[in-house]
Write a structure and sequence with these properties.
Blueprint: E1 6-12, E2 22-23, E3 29-32, E4 40-42, H1 46-55, H2 62-76, H3 113-120, E5 125-126, E6 134-139, E7 143-150, E8 153-156, E9 164-165, E10 169-171
Parallel strand pairs: 1-4
Antiparallel strand pairs: 1-3, 2-3, 5-10, 6-7, 6-10, 7-8, 8-9
Helix pairs in contact: 1-2
Length: about 180
């Protein structure tokens, strides 16, 4: 027969998830850290249990000792410092990512990514100023779309069925890569 060893008892919130959990006389449910049936159990903290193990390691369950040492390591590990919560001054969004998506590191740190790029977007101009044959135009019924001019009318770019639209404003398209 194997020698009896001392085990480490850990508090359990949901006893149905631990096979050999028991209700202690002081309240609350406990289980042995190794998962075996209850035997000689010590309800010490991880630090107290590890200190007792150092005096006579042969008296204690090696799985419970490992669990106590891991718990002690986890408790003493440095905690990450939380990042201060920032929110956009325009829309209260928390999506502020300086240095990402082509965004500068040190400018407009009070704006979220969407408001940052909206601030830098060109202003919409009246459709009467459109000189190009292809624009990003705003039509009240369909919103912003890429439009091409055919004569004096505007149609959706790349659509075979010709449906004419009447945009009210437009944004100039960025220059093509070969022109830059």
């Amino acid at each position: 027969m194997a020698d009896l060893k001392y085990h480490w008892a850990i508090p359990v919130l949901d006893p149905s998830k631990r096979r050999y959990a028991w209700k202690a006389y002081a309240g609350g449910h406990y289980a042995q850290a190794c998962g075996r049936k209850p035997a000689l159990v010590l309800g010490d903290t991880a630090a107290q249990f590890v200190a007792k193990v150092k005096t006579d390691p042969d008296w204690y369950c090696s799985d419970c000792v490992k669990a106590a040492r891991l718990a002690l390591t986890k408790e003493s590990a440095p905690k990450p410092t939380p990042r201060p919560a920032r929110s956009c001054s325009n829309c209260r969004s928390g999506a502020i990512n300086p240095g990402h998506h082509g965004r500068a590191e040190d400018t407009d740190l009070d704006l979220c990514d969407v408001c940052y790029w909206r601030k830098r977007a060109p202003e919409p101009r009246p459709i009467g100023e459109a000189l190009d044959t292809e624009i990003i135009g705003y039509c009240p019924d369909i919103g912003w779309r890429r439009l091409s001019r055919i004569g004096q009318k505007w149609v959706l770019t790349g659509i075979k069925q010709l449906v004419y639209y009447e945009p009210t404003h437009f944004l100039p398209l960025p220059p093509s890569p070969e022109a830059a």
